[in-house]
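Hey, I was hoping to borrow your eyes for a little while. I've dropped the whole record in just underneath, so have a look:

——
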Amino acid sequence: MPQEEISKSEKMLTLIMPVYNEGDAVIPVISTLFLTVLYPMQIFVVHDSPDDITVPTVKKLQKYFNDLYLVKNEWDRGVLNAIKTGFKNANTPYIGVWVAYHLDPFGILNSMIKKMENGCDLVSANRFTVDSKRARGDTIKKMFSYGGNIVLNKIIGMPISDITTSIKVYRKSMLDSLVIETVVNGGWAVNAELAIKAAIKGYRLDEIPLEKKNITLVHGLTNFKVLKQLPTYFRWLFLGWKNRKLIKSHIH
């Protein structure tokens, strides 16, 4: 399917899945998503190069799933630009981001879409529940992930508890109103930026707590580079802090 025809889809949800040499590891993830999500959905697998070993795997899966598309990263390489490419090409009421190594056998997306249908503009998964605490990486990375989200939620007043997870669903009309300024590569950064800016503008945010049964990590490691990405991390923390009164004023 030519890329220019993708935007004509009448689906409710577009899931953007950035990949980099995932290969056959995407098979259980993509298959489970199509089998468990109850709403009309399409998946954009966004790759940097036709040489990516995930491409032939997805082409095989396309024989079984009509709403699975390969989309070439339109900008430079990397997760950030893959997400931006997906945002640009998706033309459904809801647009989500899903990482290629998260298997969801119980369909958490159904609960997320239900909240969107009830008026939310952004719904996020929450890894930091009593049952879950799914932050990955070494001790320092977990500290920044868990600690930063506590600051945003408890002190700044963000209405969701997990700003940095990539498992989010956005209302397209909201996305169209926000300018992405993030330049550092990493899905966590752009998702954090969008969540904080949405809260400042008064959009309605909500979350679904993850349980251990909800998400299985097929493979993959966090790509958070502490020294390189820390300035971006604190940039969005400071934006939230500076606008904390405004954020809290929007909470009903």
Summary: The chain has ten helices and nine strands. Residues 132-141, 220-227 have pLDDT under 50 and may be disordered. Residues 5 and 155 are 45 Å apart (CA to CA). The longest strand covers residues 41-47.
